[in-house]
Amino acid sequence: MKKEPRKLDRDRLRGILEDNGGSPEDLERFNEYMSRRGFLRRTGVIAALAGMGAGAEVTLQRLFGQGLIPVGWAAEAETKAIASKPDMIIHNDRPVNGEFSPHLLDDNITPSPRHFVRNNGLTPQRAKNKDPQGWELAIDGEINTPLKLTLDDLKKMPAITKSLLIECGGNGRGNFVPKVRGNPWDRGAVACSEWTGVPLKEILNRAGLKSSAIYTAHYGEDPPIGAAPPFSRGIPIDKAMEEHTLVAYKMNGKDLEALNGYPVRLVVPGWIGSCSQKWLNRIWIRDQVHDSNKMTGYSYRVPAYPVVPGSRPPKTDMVIATSWVIKSLITRPAANTRIDIGKTFKVRGHAWAGENQVDSVYISTDYGLNWTKAVLTQPRNQYAWYTFETELAFKGKGYYEIWARAVDNQGVTQPARQPWNPKGYLGNVIHRVPVLVGV
C-alpha cells in the first residue's frame, strides 16, 4: 500500500507567505516537493538541492531566502534557547513567543528562566553563542557627535540597577471578545526583572542632541522572517531621556538571556514591551515620529476612540500605543486549586499602572457584588510592580472565583469587560481565578 505523504503545516506557511509577499504557488510547489520526496527531512539541505529539478530548486531557494523553512526545522533551531525556559507556554517557535502561567510569576523579582519571550524575528546567532565579539551600538541621526560603543565602552559608563516591568503590548489578547488575530496571550507575557545598564539619556547627552531631535528609532540584530523589513520601533525623546529608560546589559545580575536580548537591549519601563528593543545595535535619532512598518497602520496602534467590538476603524483613526494601563495579576492561588472548607489561605498578586501609580487593589469572591480591600506593598522603585495580599476562607462547598481589581492614582479601575480594539492591545480586564472548595 502506498504510504500517504507527510505534509507540512500548510496553514502556517501560507500565513507567513501572505505576510511577507510570497505567492500561494510558491507554497504549493514547496509542499508538493516536500511531501513527494521528504529529502530535507531525511538527508539535509545539500542533498535535497542536488536532487531537485530546476523549477523546484528555484522555489525552494526563494522560500529559504525569505526565511521559510519547515516548522520542524525551525523548532530544532531554537530548541536550545527555549530549553532555558522549561515552564514556558509556547505560542510560536519561529519566531519564539511564549508566556508563563500566573502562579509561576509570584516572585517580586521575576527569575530570568520565567521572563516571557516576545520575538518578531529569529534569535541572532551571537545571542545563542553568547559571543560579544564584534558587537557595537551605533548612535546617529539628529545628534552632534555620532557614536559607536562596544560592550566594554558601555560597561565603563556609570550604570544603575532597577527593578523594571516589561509587558508585551498584546498581553491579554486571548481574553478579547470577539477574538482578534495574533498570539493568543493570556496574562503571562509580563515580568519584573532586575536590569543593569546605562541610562539612555547619558548616551544621548554624550552624543549631543540637536534641537531637531523628536523621536528615536531602534534596530536590533535579530534576522527578520521572510521578506519583512527589520523590526524597528521608537519612542519620543522625552521618554528616551527619562532616567529609568536603560540600555541594559545585565538581567538579574547576569548577562542577558539569549531570548531576552543578549548582549544589549533597551528597557523602556511603563510602556508596551515592543519599545524595549532587543539585541540592540543602532539608535537613530529622528526629526519626526518614527515611521517603520511597526509604527504605522494597525501595528502597535489602538483606536483614538472606543469602537464597536469586531469593527475596524480607518488607519487614520489609529494612534500609537504607549504606556500601559492599570492592571493586576493573581499569582496565589493557582487556577483550579482545591481548598478545604473553612481553611484560611492567602491570595496574593501584583499590580501596575504604566506611567501612573497603583492606589489600591480589591478582591471579590461573589462575582463582583462585594469587594474587600487588599494590603498593598509599594514597589522597590518606580516602574516595578506592586504586591497585594489578603486572607480568605470559604464557609461552604462548591465552585468559586477570586476576582482582583486594581485602581490607579487617577481613579481609573480595571474594567469588568474588556474594551475592544482590532489588534488586541492593552488588555486589562479584571483577573478571575477559579477555585474548588471541599470538592
Largest sheet: 5 strands, antiparallel
CATH architecture assignment of the largest domain: Alpha-Beta Complex
CATH topology of the largest domain, what is it called? Sulfite Oxidase, Chain A, domain 2
State the helicity in percent bands: 10-25%
CATH class of the largest domain: Alpha Beta
Please state roughly what percent of the residues sit in beta strands, choosing from under 5%, 5-15%, 15-25%, 25-35%, 35-45% or over 45%: 25-35%
CATH superfamily grouping of the largest domain: Oxidoreductase, molybdopterin-binding domain
- The shape, in one word, is globular
What does this 3D model show about the protein?
The chain is an alpha+beta fold and 439 residues long. The protein has three domains: 10-69; 90-320, Sulfite Oxidase, Chain A, domain 2, CATH 3.90.420; 327-437, Immunoglobulin-like (Sandwich). Helix content is 19%, strand content 28%. The chain is built from nine helices and 23 strands. It has helices at 10-19, 24-37, 39-51, 54-65, 71-82, 125-129, 151-156, 200-207, 237-240, and strands spanning 89-93, 96-99, 117-118, 137-141, 147-149, 160-167, 190-199, 215-220, 246-251, 254-255, 265-267, 280-286, 301-303, 318-320, 327-332, 337-339, 345-352, 358-364, 372-373, 375-377, 386-392, 398-408, 431-437. The strands form six sheets. Strands 6, 7, 9, 10 and 11 form a five-stranded antiparallel β-sheet that branches. A five-stranded mixed β-sheet has the order 16-23-22-18-19, with no helix packed on it. The protein has a four-stranded mixed β-sheet with strand order 5-4-12-8. Strand 1 (89-93) and strand 2 form a beta hairpin. Helix 1 runs antiparallel to helix 2 (24-37) and helix 2 (24-37) packs across helix 4. The longest helix has 14 residues, at 24-37.
